[in-house]
Fold this protein.
Amino acid sequence: MDSSRVPVRASSPVWIRALLLAIFALFATRFAEAQAPPWSFFDGRSNDELRALARDPHNDVLLRRSAATKLVRTLADSGDLDAADAAGREFVKNIDPLAIKHAEAVRRRSHAHVAALIALGVALGIAALSLARARALFASAVQAVRRLAPVFLFFFLYSGIVGGYLASRYENGSPLPFVVFAACMLPVAMLFRAWSAVGSPGLVARVGRASLAVTVTLATGFLVLEQVNPAYLAGVGM
């Protein structure tokens, strides 16, 4: 019975030392963050000045780290992604890892931006061409859109006003993305409803129109968020 207690007594100091080390590491990290220069210190500085601050071995290590972080984020936000990647590799030993992740996210966002524009152009182009080819049935298409006018109005009110109101209830939330998205999707929904009225009623055609409608919705949502508040895209790695 006494032997079973020995490991517990022997291991207790190990756990105490590990806990003390963890507390010390947390305190040191917070202290270092407190000693780092504020972002306002870098306001108005050019990329060359930031690079010089990050390279100068006579500067404090936290100053060089903050300058390198600011440089990479500034280059990425300005669209110079290759330069941001090069700076990230140059200062990889003394830079906030989040800055490199930010540059990678901006690159993914730029690729998604191009893909969204292509998808939007292709889908809307096909819909417009289909309507143009069936111009003899244009009157029936207008009637179909008019019949669904209350549905379109409900969609605009629900997505723009209700969705925006719910978003504004959260901390730092803004209703603007929902309002802009609803305003952009309203004419798109009318276009696709008109296309559906004059298009083929076959299953393949209907599935094709539905797929393009989903594509346009996703592309529009991405472009709206990118322009209105890119911070919302951080949750999906962009």
Remarks:
- The chain has three domains: 1-35, 37-95, 105-236.
- The radius of gyration is 28 Å.
- The CA atoms of residues 72 and 87 lie 6 Å apart.
- Residues 97-133 form the longest helix (37 residues).
